[in-house]
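The instructor's notes for this session suggest beginning with a concrete chain rather than abstract definitions. Hand out the sequence below and ask the class to guess, before any prediction is shown, which regions might be ordered.
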Amino acid sequence: MTCNFDKDELILKVLDGKATPEEILALFRWIETDSANEEYFNQLKKAWNLTSGPISSKEREEKEFRYYMNYIRSKRKIYRLRRIYKYVAIIILPLLVGVVYWLQRERMPEDVRSIPVVARIEPGEYKATLITASGSTISLLPSNQEDIQVDENISVTNGQDGIAYDNVKGSVGSLQYNTLQTSRGGEYAVTLSDGTRVYLNAASEMKYPVMFDERKREVYLSGEAYFEVTKDTNRPFYVVTDAVRVKVYGTKFNVNTYSARGIQTVLVSGKVGVRGKGSSEEYMMKPSQLAEFNDKGVFKGIREVNPTAYTAWRDGRFVFENESLEEILNSLSRWYNVDIIYGNEKVKRYHFTGHMEKYESIDIFLRAISKMVGVDFTIKDKIIIVTE
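After discussion, reveal the predicted structure:
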């Protein structure tokens, strides 16, 4: 392997946080072409850590974080992570929130820690269970493209895009509710009778009328779902959880009830109003805002966010922006249907930024985290054990 002065200069620019996104990707590709290139990079990085490591400052962290994330968001498709993710972990992430600590301590050897694996963990899939008003239970898979009888007089279609009620065959005399449930390791979509499209994330449940009445459209959610609501000025649309009620005016938004931080509503486009249980005060949201309530329905605030970080799951990706290890692994546990055991409480509080495709092996993401901050992962059956 040869490495000229220009390559050294490029590596130092990346480590100093002065490289352009194009220069960063050029370095990715160079590292990827030869294992000796990665070894050379690691040697230079270690020397840089000892002599020129980044100064821990909030301004620097926020600047580097925004710089990289804005570039990633500008791309319609995030690069295939099985090719570049481990390099994101060793090049970009040392410049981001929470990793300065690792660079200063030099807690990890340069090679990626191994992850003992006893059983392969498969990603989730498109599947759900439908419970009809009469109590019948129906297993749903996209491969079962057929009409499903949800009532004596009503049938709906099921296919590659999920279950659809927008062309209900039959008639309903009064409101009759179906319930769509996804288990851990499952997701599904439903098109409601008004044309509203709902994507249900893993370990979630939504109760909804087979056909809406003439006054309002109301569904009941536990877990997480992404909504694309059909506009109807004569019939407002409501999403009701145990603690929050969201009033919709024709829009795209995400509701998450299983976040450790509380009940979160993220608005992508349009307009929604949110209020806590038992409260008459409605808070109006604008696009790219997140409204948060605690599990008792007490309003915690509204803030500006990047909606992609909260809705990427619908497009087959995980996007984590400065989230704790506990929050990240909670998301992964629902999708990969695994349980998490921690060796100590401290590791839960490490924060990371990263991306991965939902259908990739979980090992890719665990190895990246392991390299970054020195935690070990042991996979046994359907359990992930996290230790320092």
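Then share the key points. The chain has nine helices and 25 strands. Residues 1-5, 53-58, 71-113 have pLDDT under 50 and may be disordered.
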